[in-house]
Amino acid sequence: MSIFDVLTLIGGLCLFLFGMNVMGQALERRAGPGLRNMLERISDHCSNIAGCIMDLQDRNMNIHENQRYQKKYDAGFKEMFSEYQEKYAL
Predict the structure, then answer these.
(1) Which of 18, 21, 32, 55 is deepest in the core (most CB within 10 A)?
(2) Which residue range forms the structural domain that includes residue 51?
(3) Is 63 left (phi over 0), alpha (psi -120 to 50) or beta?
(4) pLDDT at 13
(5) Which of 6, 76, 29 is nearest to 21 (CA)?
(6) How would you label 21-51 residue by residue, b for 16+ Cβ within 10 Å and e otherwise?
(7) pLDDT for 37-87, tens place per residue?
(8) Max CA pair span of the chain
């Protein structure tokens, strides 16, 4: 492998990373806050699925019981819940 091959490899990698950066910035400008809201809602549903999977691992499907417990006793959960409730009011 010659020095020319190494420089070509580095140049190609730099060009690829530059292109990814430009594409990411363009996507952020095009999508705006709508995409962020959609992704946050999707990730919220994924956390429900993750909760079910964790309960399955323990062989007890008590996800609603666990959520009721958090809603009742966890102050941090109550604070985050009220913030999201205001942000995503339907």
Answers:
(1) 55
(2) 3-87
(3) alpha
(4) 93
(5) 29
(6) eeeeeeeeeeeeeeeeeeeeeeeeeeeeeee
(7) 776 776 666 666 766 666 666 666 666 777 777 778 888 878 888 888 888
(8) 67
Q: How many domains does the chain have?
A: 1
Q: CA geometry: angle at 58 spanning 76 and 42, to 5°? A: 50
Which pair of tokens denotes residue 65?
A: 């019981």
pLDDT of residue 71: 76
Q: Which residue has the tokens 């409730």?
A: 85
